Amino acid sequence: MTTIDANDPRQLMAKAVKELRELRARVKELETARDAPIAIVGMGCRFPGGADDPASFWELVREGRDAIAEVPASRWDASDYYDPDREAPGKMATRRGGFIGDIDAFDAAFFGVSPPEARGMDPQQRLFLEVAWEALEHAGIAADTLVERAVGVYAGICSSQHACNVFDVSIIEQIDAHHGTGSTFAVTAGRLSHFLGVKGPSLAVDTACSSSLVALHLACQGLRSGECELALVGGVNLLLGPQISVSFSKARMLSADGRCKTFAASADGYGRGEGCGVVVLRRLSDALARGERVLAVVRGSAVNHDGPSSGLIAPNGHAQVDVIRDALRQAGIEPARVGYVEAHGTGTLLGDPIEVSALGEVFGKSHTRQRPLLLGSAKANIGHLEAAAGISGLIKLVLSLQHKTVPPHPLVGERNPYIPWSRLPVEIPAAAQPWASDGAPRVGGVSSFGFSGTNVHVVLEEAPEAAPVEAPVERPLHVLALSAKSDGALRALVAAYQRRLGAGDAPAGDVCFTANTGRAQLRHRACAIGRTAEELCEDLDRALAEAAVAPPSDPKIAFLFTGQGSQQAGMARGLYEAQPSFRRCVDRCAEIVDPLLSRPIREVLFDEGAGDAAGQAAFTQPALFIVEYALAELWRQWGVKPTAVLGHGVGEHVAACVAGVMPLEDALRLVVARGRSMQSPPAAGSPDELSRAAGAARLRAPALPLVSSVTGALADDAITRGAYWARAGREADRLAGGLRALRELGCGVFVEVGPGAALIERGQRELEDSGKARWVPSLVAGKDDWGALLGAVAALYRAGVAIDWGGFERDYPRRRVTLPTYPFERKDYPAPIPARRRSARSSEAGAHSVSEAGAHGVSEVRTLTVREVGALTVEHGSADPHRSVNGGSP
Fold this sequence. Notes:
Elements: H1 9-34, E1 38-46, H2 54-62, E2 68-70, H3 78-81, E3 96-98, E4 105-106, H4 115-120, H5 123-139, E5 151-156, H6 161-166, H7 179-182, H8 185-196, E6 202-205, H9 211-225, E7 230-237, H10 243-250, E8 275-283, H11 284-289, E9 296-305, H12 317-331, E10 338-342, H13 351-363, E11 373-376, H14 379-382, H15 389-403, E12 405-406, E13 426-427, E14 433-434, E15 443-449, E16 454-462, E17 478-484, H16 487-503, H17 508-517, E18 524-530, H18 533-545, E19 548-549, E20 556-561, H19 573-578, H20 580-593, H21 601-606, H22 617-637, E21 644-647, H23 650-658, H24 664-678, H25 686-696, E22 706-708, H26 722-725, H27 735-744, E23 747-753, H28 758-766, E24 774-777, H29 785-798, H30 805-808, E25 827-828, H31 843-853, H32 866-870
Parallel strand pairs: 5-6, 5-7, 10-11, 10-15, 11-13, 20-21, 20-23, 21-22, 23-24
Antiparallel strand pairs: 1-8, 1-9, 2-3, 4-25, 7-8, 9-16, 12-14, 15-16, 17-18, 18-19
Helix pairs in contact: 2-15, 5-8, 9-15, 10-31, 12-13, 16-18, 20-22, 22-23, 22-24, 23-24, 24-25
């Protein structure tokens, strides 16, 4: 450390300048981290209209379909609660909305939930669990790799209807121990965190219909601050009774036909909808470093409140302008770069003009009628999903960026006359159209405004283009590993993959990479092997017939290393040609032994013209060692790590090297000397050379159990003395005793690491309980190298071995593709919805139930006159009347 002279001004000044520069660098680093872009790497959804995944949701919005339908009888009898007269007690003026499928069905066993607890859970919690799992699989992130990691869960949720249903005092005797956790917002997030075993922030967010985008804003902050490395963010909303709809209908907030007629003259309120959406987030730099598929990038977001608007639930145009500008500022993006905004767009005669005018204030100077800002809203397709509204709009925007297409906005009739269309550079696309680009990444925004006054805007940018990477070499065969929690689910999964592979639109290597690395490894397992997607599809039937249930814990593995006599001409040549790690290991060994031999060892190994050299011990000994050592290293790269090792003949030298008894260089020199001593006739001076090599070897105690085939027992300290290794194969053979010692160590899987199955054949003959063990040869004489090796991988996987699929694919450039998600085996756990059965109550009793269950009271709501609506301009945003029939939305 340099000492500073406190009396020298120049040194003091230099020190101050250095510290200032360091401080500025740190400030810049913190500022960069504060605004760091966030990657969206996965999505899952369950939206109205059968949009049960992102692909089907995209088809729905691209085609401009209307998903609004009559209230299903499984929720309530629409005729019991419908009356066109909004003032009729206990009635609502609509009988339609946006609904998803069966909300009673849930795979409780998959999530480790008992049937009684499943019956007590809010169906919103159940739905959030399933969609979050699907989002992780869509991201290609195996859930079982996240345990104990800093993974955040941020859930937007605002409907407490389930709690109202189960805690009704009239059925208080039916309340059980599960209703408390089953109806709490916080448990929606906490239950997912608990199931995944993750330790990052876990919170539920309720800002009404801006909940899910506020949750995303908080998740981005958590990722940037380092609170979490990965985040699951979403929103969920289910319509579990008519009570809130009755309240909102009386507040003039709901449309008569159940639709959000966004931007239309016929706008008369919003249509309620339900569903769930979840996205998976990671810092962009981390996602790119991990090779993850980036769907879009969150460049910025902002949250504010309406402040002093004219009423609690009245929108504030100025606040909307501010939140959009703040989000753009954090993103570092000029308004001119934004091509599309997914609007809040509830379809109210007042709310739509305020929002569009606010957008005109932000983008009016950067856009023109010739280059307008395009607007749309998913609410016009699927209804207003309230707590899940923001995430549905975000997913739509991500899909639009991915497809470089702006979907049509279903405009009902004429455009809203109170929006000054002629003065604003905005346009509503009537048909799907290409999203134009000037060469820079496309940018879009999504807004969400809660009726409590909390506003949020998020700026998304198109994902960076992934540079294509050409593989220098490709593996000729691929293995597809599928797993499930039951035989039935495995069969359903196989069928789904057969359909996916049949489409033929993804390379087999990418399909296998995504499935193998991006799914949790469950106990019911099947493995297909093939060169192409078509071959994999055909082989799945065989794979299913050979499916097995893995043990609950990882089995103990023994490596068996073969001795002299198992060699073959051209052994492992297929691996050398198409497995880069194997090749590098062989090349490294060759560099050590080639100076010690009269011919290059790779020539002896792989050249069919090697002639007599292939049968000479001077060459076969180092050749066998190299093949076996390279195979062992490959197995370890693939996650197959031995509990104990045993070698026979030269294989014992490989076993010792793998166990850490001697370094590779010493082992190879010793094996070369051994080969010469075994030559017939022996090379001159070879016994002395073997003794010198053995004496020079750097020996130490094994790092893992090493069983000696000389003694048939665990190796003792004799293994660390040169004399043990100078015997040149003159010892007795006690292989059977060695195999029994491995069994006593608990080894149940025996992997022969060599060019054949000689030791396996002996073990199956000589070991008393050989039928209880699994015997897996790495290579098989007369069989294609890759077919044999991948068959071994499949056998080990079925046996419960934790294959490191990332290591398995490390040598080949791959990309993640979209594959089928888990086929949940759902059973019915009916949600307690009292309104499911026709009520015999009088209208007075019906009114009483509404007052008891209505969680969101609205005071002094009045209908705006057309004159009042017509007077609106962007300048008057903060003085708007109550957000009622023509403006209100939760």
